[in-house]
Design a protein that fits this description.
Blueprint (H helix, E strand, L loop, with lengths): L1 H26 L7 H48 L1 H5 L2 H23 L4 H10 L6 H18 L3 H5 L2 E2 L2 E2 L6 H13 L3 H17 L10 H14 L3 H14 L4 H16 L14 H6 L13 E4 L11 E8 L2 E6 L4 H11 L4 E2 L2 E3 L4 E3 L7 E5 L5 H14 L9 E5 L6 E4 L18 E8 L5 E2 L2 E3 L4 E3 L6 E5 L13 E3 L2 E3 L3 E8 L14
Antiparallel strand pairs: 1-2, 3-4, 4-5, 5-16, 6-9, 7-8, 9-10, 10-19, 11-17, 12-16, 12-19, 13-18, 14-15, 14-17
Length: about 525
């Protein structure tokens, strides 16, 4: 009986935990944080378009019936118009008229009132839970702005598909621009909101939005006026409201707001408009490829054949790119077939990336890291075993006690803010109690990225841009075991492309005989 109770409790706890995980996934899909994760949205949109097409077919079928009925009735009605009394003097005709007016129009009313496309409407209702939420739209807007601010892109150029000097066959719609303007207003980024709302107004003249997606143009103008007020441009705001009043002369809200702004003009006649400037630091310069070229004569390229006996037969192409911290770049270190297999393994398991919180000793979702990840045990399959062996050959480190392989895919404006990979076990000893701190990082680039996505080290003015088959490795700790602050790094936003990487964090405790000076009790 006791064993039965224990089994029941364990089973119940497992099912409860599984339900919690599934509920968490159902609440927020984080669609924009991974390009691979957005594939299912295209598939769903295809289904929704097909569903709407079926709805249109039913509407057209009903419209044909109505048009046919109108044609027959109009033909009969036209006969009466020639001579109404003579027409009605025939008992066959007069009876038919009475019957039609008594019966047919009631049936037409019922037919007109008959709902169309119930199944199609139900289809949309059933799939609503898979549609992006308002949080998804906010994250997508933030990612879009991240691209613009990091790379210093112009709003007008972006709206026309010109991204960082390259023209693409894509444009933003009026509704897209309006959504970005609303997002920036909510975030109190009034300079950016001003640019996007102005573009909304300008493009609305050329491409007005039709039913059922149309927006009240006066709402756009009023929001733009509010943004101008926030920027201390009171007179411009009044002019915008006057434009709105041309179509809505007696709108009380617009009239009242114009009066309030005119009062501001009188009470603050010398107010100076607020400037709108983006801060450009080393992080932004690195992402833009503006760091100076490497000039250290001690840096070199070699075929590494010494780290392991295997490398004597198949040496690795190694490029030394930094000495403090020690940093090397390996070329052609992972094959296209291995990459394809790794990506296929990861796609079904991709989950929103988290960041370790030392204070609460937990992993948390944060806005400063937008990507999806999948984790694989070293012994997951032959590929993971082979990759771990290759990492041993590359680093000459022991991987026992190190973290699992992590495969990551970045989405719209996907990035990771400036951070250190080491935990700093001096101040947070619990993080490295068993296996020590992260002595080194190995990061494989699984594909080329068309634009953006560099790994930037702002403290040492270095940037590594993704190239399929390469891997960068660096030491996170100094020789005395302390964290090296020069390893501060960040993943730049992806402008165009789907960035895939795979990384391994190597722990220090097992390296006692590899680098003895690092061992700490």
């Amino acid at each position: 009986m006791k064993n039965y109770s224990r089994k029941f409790i364990f089973t119940w706890l497992f099912l409860y935990f599984l339900a919690l995980v599934q509920a968490q996934d159902a609440v927020e899909k984080s669609h924009s944080t991974s390009v691979a994760g957005m594939v299912e949205l295209i598939e769903l949109e295809t289904q929704l378009i097909d569903n709407l097409n079926r709805y249109a077919d039913k509407l057209e079928s009903k419209l044909k019936i109505v048009r046919s009925g109108i044609a027959k009735m109009s033909l009969e009605n036209a006969k009466a118009a020639l001579s109404i009394e003579e027409y009605l003097s025939n008992p066959l005709i007069s009876f038919s008229l009475i019957r039609r007016m008594n019966r047919d129009w009631i049936n037409w009313e019922l037919y007109m009132d008959e709902p169309i496309g119930i199944r199609e409407i139900d289809f949309i209702q059933e799939h609503k839970e898979f549609l992006p939420t308002s949080t998804d739209l906010e994250e997508a807007s933030a990612g879009f702005d991240r691209i613009q601010s990091t790379y210093g892109l112009n709003s007008t150029d972006m709206s026309k598909g010109l991204l960082n000097g390259r023209q693409y066959d894509a444009r933003l719609s009026v509704l897209d621009m309006y959504a970005l303007g609303q997002y920036h207003y909510d975030q109190q980024n009034y300079g950016a909101a001003s640019a996007w709302l102005y573009l909304t107004i300008e493009n609305h003249k050329e491409s007005p939005v039709g039913i059922p997606l149309q927006i009240d143009f006066s709402d756009v103008l009023l929001l733009y006026a509010e943004v101008l007020v926030k920027l201390n441009r009171y007179k411009d705001a009044v002019q915008v409201i006057n434009i709105a009043l041309k179509d809505k002369k007696f709108d009380a809200k617009l009239i009242r707001r114009r009066s309030e702004i005119e009062t501001l003009i009188r009470t603050e006649p010398n107010i100076i408009p607020k400037p709108f400037n983006r801060i450009v630091g080393d992080y932004e310069r690195g992402c833009r490829g503006q760091f100076p070229a490497l000039t250290d004569s001690r840096l070199y390229c070699i075929y590494n054949a010494t780290n392991s006996p295997f490398l004597r037969l198949a040496p690795l192409k190694m490029e030394l790119i930094g000495l403090d911290p020690y940093m090397v770049l390996y070329h052609d270190v992972i094959s296209p077939n291995e990459i394809a297999q790794l990506q296929e393994m990861a796609k079904p398991q991709l989950k929103r990336a988290t960041v370790y919180n030392a204070t609460g000793n937990t992993n948390q979702f944060v806005k400063t890291r937008t990507a999806k990840v999948a984790w694989f045990l070293d012994t997951f399959n032959q590929l993971t075993e082979r990759l771990n062996q290759r990492i041993k050959d590359m680093t000459n480190f022991v991987l026992n006690g190190s973290e699992m392989l992590q495969v990551m895919n970045y989405g719209l404006g996907g990035f990771y803010i400036k951070h250190f990979d080491y935990f700093n076990t001096t101040t947070n000893p619990q993080t490295g109690q068993i296996n020590g701190d992260r002595i080194a990082t190995v990061l494989f680039y699984l594909n080329d990225v068309e634009q953006g996505g560099a790994t930037v080290f702002p403290e040492i003015k270095k940037a590594v841009f993704p190239k399929q088959g390469t891997a960068i490795m660096w030491y996170n700790l100094k020789d005395d075991g302390e964290g090296n602050r020069a390893t501060l790094h960040a993943a730049c936003p992806v402008i165009v492309g789907s960035k895939w990487v795979c990384n391994k964090w190597i722990r220090e405790r097992e390296q006692i005989f590899k680098r003895p000076c690092l061992f700490r009790k």
